[in-house]
Known about the structure:
There is one protein chain. By secondary structure, the chain is an alpha/beta fold. The protein has helices at about 45-55, 70-75, 85-100, 115-125, 165-175, 200-215, and strands at about 5-10, 15-25, 30-35, 60-65, 110-115, 130-140, 155-160, 180-185. It has an eight-stranded mixed sheet, with helices on both faces. Helix 3 (about 85-100) crosses helix 4 (about 115-125).
Amino acid sequence: MNAVNQSLQIPAAGVVLEADVVVPEPPRALVLFAHGSGSGRHSPRNRRVAGELQGAGLATVLADLLTPQEEQVDARTGALRFDIGLLSERVAALTDWLVGQERFADLRVGLFGASTGAEAALAAAAARPASVEAVVSRGGRPDLAGGLLRLVRQPTLLIVGERDATVLELNRTAMDQLPGETKLEVVPGASHLFEEPGALEEVTRLARAWFVRHLSPAE
């Protein structure tokens, strides 16, 4: 696969965020990753998922949602990782920047959210209905997006581990609030972090199929 790899500094909602961008040639669509629970662009799980998406011709953007200074504060307090308003504002701002770039202007955009990043992705999708065209949530807490769930009309895939009982129930409840096409996929034998053999591979397969289906250019 021929691809262009870049590390960028992207202005977003009054701060500058670090991002790793991989663009296959030619790209068929673009997926922005929203990390959660104190994670960032170096998340090994998200990078594995991103690698498979790149293999399907999807450009990927893995961006830190917190600045280095904020990450230091969050490491001590754990407060910012649960600030869904802050995180979603930055996901929306990153989306705005990406669709404003000439090389991405014609690409359809999807959001992949993990853990608390999933709520940020859903809230950003609600705020950017014209820019975001599909969402995938891995082990997310969609209930934390509150009333914004009813504004998410994009096709949304919820992926939850079978052994992640509380989160699974919350995702089942969220399905009744999401007005667009919604699907819940339960990964057999998987816990919250999908650390079991084959679990993350299944997440990757499901996410790849969803994005290819909903983001591929019209023939």
